[in-house]
Every structure is written in structure tokens, then in C-alpha cells.
Write a structure and sequence with these properties.
By secondary structure, the chain is of the alpha/beta class. It has eight helices and six strands.
Length: about 200
């Protein structure tokens, strides 16, 4: 396994851990991923491979949102152009998403996560906010919304992510594979796309 492939497995394992071990995702449940960085993009791929529907990706960069579409997002939302909470409510018959994986780590996106999650739903903060965040904790409590953080991927989640990749349950094309790997390592490092 190359360094780039290992990077994808570990990054996918982080998303897998949040969605399955901690979140108990069941096929057919809705997932929103906020922030199309490497963890967010692979959260889209993992959620789709596990049968989530719909899978919605929000962010500000059209290039990354397009990669999210390639990885399985049913709908992308550029939050500069559309109200993400309103779009999620529309796509979930007004009730909100079952799961929100928050990968941006800003006060605004954490608030979006709270308001787009359904009653009894789950939020997985996967990003590290730079500053303390003010949020509507009362809304979380009144709506029985669960929040849990992920710090790493866990061995079993990484193994399952590797198995899904081996089965081609999710697989990035060369462009998105190279992009995700470069994001994970830092844009200063040039990662060559895999060749089959």
C-alpha cells in the first residue's frame, strides 16, 4: 500500500469511526457533511458506501464540492449561495438530518449543524475550532440531539474502511484521490495519483 492509499484509509477510518462505532449509522438514514476537506470528502464516500440517503455536502469551494459529488454526495450546497439549513430541511421532508458530520470547525457551521439536525439526531464534530464557540445548547437539549467528537479512527474502523475500499464500495478517481491525499499531507507535498 502506498503512502497516499494509507492516507485515504486512515482518513476514511476517522469518518467510519464517527458514523458507525460512535453514531450507529443505519442504511437509509440521512447524512450531512459540513466542510469538504479530506475528512469531510471521505465522510461523504463512507456514508454513501454504508447506504446513507441522502448524503448532502456543504462548503464554500466549488472545486471541493464537485469532488464530493464524484464521491457520492446526492446534493452539494455552496453556503455562499444557498441556505444550507433550509436545503437540508427541504431534502428531509422538513425534519432535518439524522447525522451531521461537522468538519469545518467554525462557529457558523457548528450552529448550522445544530439547526439542520433532526429531533433525536446526532452531530459529530470532527474539526478543531481555533477559538471557543458559542452555540445554542438549549436547542440541542430541547431536541434531544446527541453530540460526540472523534479524535482518531480506531483500528476496527480503519480495517473496515480498507475492506470497503478493496471491495470498490467507494473509490476516488485519480484527480480526487490525489487531491484528498494532498490535502491530508498538506498542499506543500505533491502526491501523484495512483495508477492501476
Amino acid at each position: 500500500m502506498s503512502d497516499a492509499e494509507a492516507t485515504l484509509v486512515v482518513t476514511a477510518g476517522t469518518s467510519m469511526y464517527g458514523l458507525t462505532e460512535l453514531g450507529g449509522l443505519v442504511a437509509g438514514e440521512s447524512v450531512v457533511v459540513i466542510g469538504p476537506g479530506p475528512i469531510g470528502l471521505l465522510a461523504v464516500a463512507v456514508a454513501k458506501a454504508l447506504g446513507a440517503s441522502p448524503v448532502i455536502l456543504t462548503g464554500t469551494r466549488n472545486r471541493r464540492l464537485a469532488i464530493g459529488k464524484e464521491l457520492g454526495a446526492d446534493r452539494t450546497v455552496n453556503i455562499n449561495d444557498e441556505d444550507a439549513v433550509e436545503i437540508v430541511k427541504q431534502l428531509t421532508d422538513g425534519i432535518g438530518a439524522d447525522y451531521v458530520v461537522e468538519c469545518a470547525g467554525t462557529e457558523a457551521t457548528i450552529s448550522q449543524a445544530i439547526y439542520m439536525t433532526n429531533r433525536g439526531g446526532k452531530i459529530c464534530p470532527a474539526a478543531f475550532p481555533r477559538d471557543p464557540v458559542t452555540m445554542d445548547l438549549a436547542h440541542l437539549v430541547k431536541n434531544n440531539i446527541y453530540a460526540y467528537g472523534i479524535r482518531g479512527e480506531g483500528r476496527s474502523a480503519t480495517r473496515r474502511a480498507m475492506a470497503l475500499m478493496a471491495e470498490k464500495r467507494f473509490d476516488a478517481n485519480e484527480n480526487s484521490h490525489a487531491y484528498i491525499s494532498a490535502c491530508r499531507f498538506g498542499d506543500r507535498v505533491k502526491i501523484r495519483p495512483r495508477t492501476h
